Amino acid sequence: MTGVPVMAVIKADAYGLGAERVAAAIADLVEGFCIFRVAEAIEAQHFQRTGKQSLALGPDLDLTADDYLAQGVRPAVWSEDRAMALRRARPILSVDTGMQRFACPADQIDRVLRAGQCDEAFTHATSLHRVDRLLALVGNRGLKLHAAGSSLLHEPTARLDCVRPGIALYRGAARIHARLVDVRKSAGPVGYSRFTASRHGVILAGYSNGLRVGPCIVNGRRSRVLEVGMQSSFVETADADGVGDEVVLLGDGLLESDIAAEWKCSQHEVLTRLCGAGAREYVQ
């Protein structure tokens, strides 16, 4: 859709979906990857397995240029000292357009560009204003520029020379489910919170798996997770529900945005919490 190269954001184990498998699946479609720290590239062997380079968005204060080069990772830089120390690893300038972390202030851009001999710059943009700010600060310098994550993919003026989608890659990609291990008619207040329901069941997933109170689907019917314990949770059930029936926690029409609205968090957090919680089965 964007018509420009894609750098796929696969940090945090590809939002819990499994960075090694995700990277292998999309390697021939993308220019490279975005990770947070070099340790992620080492663990999944991204460069060795795909031949594609990565951009490390966060700080690795103890690593040298050789450490980055060995893993096919280009470091983001935002200070003159860091840019100088990592020059051989072809650092990429991170420009502060409002995020105010891991990014170079406007008055230091020229010094950092010179110190790192940078040929590329980016910013974390959540609005077109930040894209415009990037262009005002480093445009017309012959640098490769990128700013758009998932939220700005639909904006042609934000696409620049590359885009960095994260949540857009994974939205709708995962189906997360558990099974009822106990179902019964409720007899008065239930659980630690003493909730009330006519019938309830139990699944073996809890807050240690990232689950929270909120929507779910039982036998194709919208239902609710009523109370969450450490390793098990109560689910509202109906007369026809029984032990072994499936409870869908994400998928089958239950969207990341639906859950995020109830959990009062981002869709990124929903995916990272739930997708990293259980055994993964990949469908080729």
Give a concise summary.
With 284 residues, the protein is an alpha/beta fold. The chain is built from 11 helices and 13 strands. Helix 7 links the parallel strand 5 and strand 6.
Describe it for me?
The chain is α/β, with parallel strands linked by helices. The chain has two domains: 7-170, TIM Barrel (Alpha-Beta Barrel); 176-275, Lyase, Ornithine Decarboxylase, Chain A, domain 1 (Beta Barrel), CATH 2.40.37.10. It contains eleven helices and 13 strands. The chain has helices at 11-15, 19-26, 38-44, 46-50, 65-70, 80-85, 109-116, 128-138, 167-170, 256-263, 267-275; strands at residues 7-9, 32-35, 54-56, 73-77, 92-94, 120-125, 144-148, 176-185, 199-203, 214-218, 221-228, 233-236, 246-250. The strands form two sheets. The chain has a seven-stranded parallel beta sheet with strand order 1-2-3-4-5-6-7. It has a six-stranded antiparallel barrel with strand order 8-9-12-11-10-13. Helix 6 (80-85) links the parallel strand 4 and strand 5. Helix 10 crosses helix 11 (267-275). The longest helix is centred in the middle third of the chain and has 11 residues, at 128-138.
Descriptive labels:
Lyase, Ornithine Decarboxylase, Chain A, domain 1, 2 domains, alpha/beta, 284 residues, TIM Barrel, 7-stranded parallel β-sheet, 23% strand, 13 strands
CATH C-level category of the largest domain: Alpha Beta
* Helix segment tally: 11
* Low-confidence segments: none
Mean pLDDT: 97
